[in-house]
Structure formats: structure tokens, C-alpha cells
Design goal:
Elements lengths: L1 E8 L6 E4 L11 E6 L2 E15 L10 E4 L2 H28 L4 E7 L5 E7 L7 H11 L2 E6 L2 H8 L10 H4 L9 H6 L6 H4 L14 H10 L6 E4 L2 E9 L4 E7 L5 E7 L10 H30 L3 H6 L32 H6 L20 H18 L13
Parallel strand pairs: 7-8
Antiparallel strand pairs: 1-2, 1-4, 3-4, 3-5, 6-7, 9-10, 10-11, 11-12
Length: 401
């Protein structure tokens, strides 16, 4: 059964959340008042009402309280000004307490019931006294949340190495995992200064063309593979994914070797006819298209998350159990106390000893070493056991060593 929903965003390039519009007539770019896990908030509709399958949504789906009025818009603008003032006050309090932390952003809830301060720090920060001072100044609930370097770059913004505003500030909703393997497969320089963004991590744009590179490499022949060209047999030396050409060392009809470039569609595997190669490429293309469609449907399904479940994952809970510094998720709450030192899990595992049950044989692990070494060890153990054995009295049982 389909459900009618609207997409609401609270910040530019922020994550989009879905709400039930009810009987309200809501269009794109309208301001709305919604109830979230943080309280009452002001958001902007970025996706007009449309139907979504109910099994693709995560219940419960909260409703839109009302369409924002002029008074609501003025309240939102006033909150933005209060955020700037709160930012200045918090910076002064941080300097007074000499805390090693960098304030990044401030968020007011729509009704002013809570103020959230976002900061970065290399280690743990004891900000209990800071929270008391801020609560005394603003007379409302205070929350301090520690964020990572990627979130800091997303909030502050800036220009990338391409000269354009960074992607996470303009249109990226979520951060995708990026690895150095992507830079290698795209034949990019592995210099950290050339493949790192403002946050000091690998640039998110390495992910954009990765799928196209992977698909093209599946179609192109592997390096050092023998292929048949129009000029004769040859061996693939290199592949250029951008031009879709392969560099081949060809044995010409006069017996000389020459290095030439061919489009990958002009190369055939030895023993295959051109029709067979075309069929293989068509099958690969259909498989890649099906995978892309499955991936698109999966991403679409994951995006239809309810605001209640999605936003609660990013918010620390005061009732959550206290964890060691090395084991927590990086989110600090004002109600938490200093954590104890973390005990390495390997030390705990090393203290566990396996107990053998009486009358039950334990399974022996295979010994390491060559066959000759193992045979020599067995002979030595066998010799020692013979020397230790002695005649047993009548009626007695043999005792194991």
C-alpha cells in the first residue's frame, strides 16, 4: 500500500527526511513546522507530496504540524540571529575555561527549548563547567556535541582543489566511503596533497567515477593477456579507461614487434569469433545495467527513512550507558561523567583459559613446521614416553603422562 509523504530538509545540503503531510496542501519550497526527536523544528519542503510504498518507509512516520506562517518565518530568522550571538558567547566561555576545543556551529530549536553546540577536539574534553555557565546565560537546555573533521568541513564550507565550493557543502547529503584503492584504479597521483580535501581525508569525488572505471575494466582485456588484432596476435601492455583503448605489443607479419593502440571493441580473445565477443560484451553490459538498477532501488529505499529513527541515530542519549573513550562513537553529552580507562579486548581474551572436562578428549591443533620437523618431534616424544613408562602392578591402570 502506498503512503503519501513530503521531503523536508532543515539545512542546505543536509539530509532529507520524510513526513506525512496529512490533509495539508504543501508544495515545494514551502516552509513547514514539524515535530522531530529534537523537538519542534522549522524546515523547507524540497520534495513535494508523492506516493511511496509503505514497506519502504520506517515507522512511525510523523506528521507535518502546519505550514509555516509569516510569524513562523520571523521566528526562524530571529533564531538564526540568536545562533550567531550564542556562538560568540560560547567562544568567550571556552577561552575563560582554557578548553582545548574548537567551536564549529550552533543550532537553536524552533521553540528555543534547546541549544546545540558543535565542536571538534583531538581528545576528550571535560566541559561540565562550561555547560553550567552556558545554561546560566541562556536559561535553556544545553547540549555539546563533538563532531569529526568531515562534518566540520560540511558545516564551514570552502573551495576545493577544482576551484568550486566543496561538494559536501553544496549537494552531498551523506558521506560515502572512499579508499586509496579508488585513486590507484583511476591512475591518479597518490600524493596526499592532491587527493585529499579540506578536511584532510580522501576527496569524496573519487567515488563519483569509480563505478564507471570498474565497469570499463570488466569490458577491457587484462594486462599481459594475449589478444588478436587486425595486425596480428599481440599482448596487452596497458589499458586507458578514459579513451577506452588498449596498448598492445603486436607481432607483425614481417616478424617485427610494434606497440600500437586499439579500441577494446577491436580486440578478440584467441579462439573466439567476433560474434562471440560481441555476445559476451552485451551480456556484461546487461549485467552491469541490472546491478545499477538494483543499487538505485536500494539507495531509494534507504532514503525513505522516518525522521524519528534517522535523527535519533545522530543524537546522544543521556540514559545511554557510559563507555570508555576509545570505544564510544565520538558524541559527548552534558550529563555524562569522565570515563574510565579502556581495557584492551586482547588482554581480556588472553586471560580466558580453556577448561578440559574429565573423561573428554580435547581436540589438538595442527602443529606448525615442515613434514620432516613434525616427524622428528613425534619420534622424540615417542622416545621420551617409552623411557618414562615402568611396569604397572597387577590390577592397576595405565596412567597418562
Amino acid at each position: 500500500m502506498a503512503k503519501r509523504v513530503v521531503g523536508v530538509r532543515f539545512k542546505k545540503a543536509g539530509r532529507m527526511y520524510y513526513f506525512d503531510p496529512g490533509d495539508l496542501q504543501i508544495t515545494e519550497s514551502d516552509g513547514v513546522i514539524v515535530e522531530t526527536s529534537r523537538g519542534i523544528e522549522y524546515g523547507e519542503v524540497v520534495l513535494s507530496a508523492h506516493n511511496v510504498e509503505e514497506d519502504e518507509l520506517v515507522a512511525p512516520l510523523k506528521e507535518v504540524v502546519r505550514v509555516a506562517t509569516e510569524e513562523d518565518s520571523e521566528t526562524n530568522e530571529r533564531n538564526l540571529q540568536l545562533e550567531e550571538e550564542a556562538f560568540t558567547v560560547c567562544q568567550e566561555k571556552i577561552a575563560e575555561h582554557a578548553l582545548d576545543m574548537k567551536l564549529v556551529d550552533v543550532e537553536y530549536t524552533f521553540n528555543g527549548s534547546k541549544i546545540t553546540f558543535f565542536f571538534t577536539s583531538e581528545g576528550r574534553v571535560d566541559f561540565r563547567e562550561l555547560v553550567k555557565d552556558l545554561a546560566h546565560v541562556f536559561k535553556t537546555r544545553i547540549e555539546l556535541r563533538q563532531i569529526g573533521v568531515r562534518d566540520e568541513a560540511k558545516m564551514l564550507g570552502g573551495l576545493g582543489s577544482c576551484g568550486l565550493p566543496i561538494c559536501c557543502k553544496t549537494f552531498l547529503e551523506d558521506f560515502q566511503p572512499v579508499s586509496i584503492k579508488m585513486a590507484k584504479e583511476q591512475n591518479l597521483s597518490l600524493s596526499p596533497t592532491k587527493i585529499s580535501g579540506l578536511c584532510g581525508r580522501l576527496m569524496c569525488c573519487l567515488k563519483y567515477e569509480q563505478e564507471a572505471y570498474e565497469n570499463m575494466r570488466r569490458l577491457m582485456p587484462r594486462i599481459n593477456r594475449e589478444v588478436i588484432t587486425a595486425d596480428g596476435r599481440g599482448t596487452v601492455l596497458d589499458n586507458n579507461v578514459i579513451t577506452e583503448k588498449s596498448k598492445v605489443r603486436v607481432l607483425l607479419s614481417d616478424g617485427t614487434l610494434d606497440v600500437r593502440e586499439y579500441h577494446f571493441t577491436k580486440l578478440r580473445k584467441p579462439g573466439n569469433t567476433p560474434e562471440e565477443d560481441d555476445a559476451i560484451r552485451a551480456e556484461l553490459a546487461a549485467h552491469q545495467k541490472a546491478r545499477a538498477e538494483e543499487k538505485r532501488q536500494e539507495e531509494s529505499r534507504l532514503r525513505y527513512l522516518s525522521d524519528d529513527n534517522a535523527r535519533e541515530q545522530n543524537e546522544s542519549s543521556p540514559e545511554a550507558p557510559i563507555r570508555p573513550p576509545e570505544c564510544n562513537s565520538g558524541v559527548q553529552s552534558a550529563s555524562q561523567t569522565p570515563r574510565p580507562a579502556c581495557v584492551p579486548c586482547c588482554d581480556a581474551r588472553n586471560t580466558i583459559k580453556q577448561k578440559e572436562e574429565p573423561g573428554k578428549e580435547t581436540q589438538k591443533l595442527p602443529e606448525k613446521g615442515s613434514a620432516q620437523t613434525l616427524q622428528k618431534r613425534r619420534k622424540q616424544r615417542s622416545g621420551r614416553s617409552r623411557r618414562k613408562r615402568s611396569p604397572n602392578p597387577a590390577g592397576s591402570e595405565n596412567k597418562r603422562d
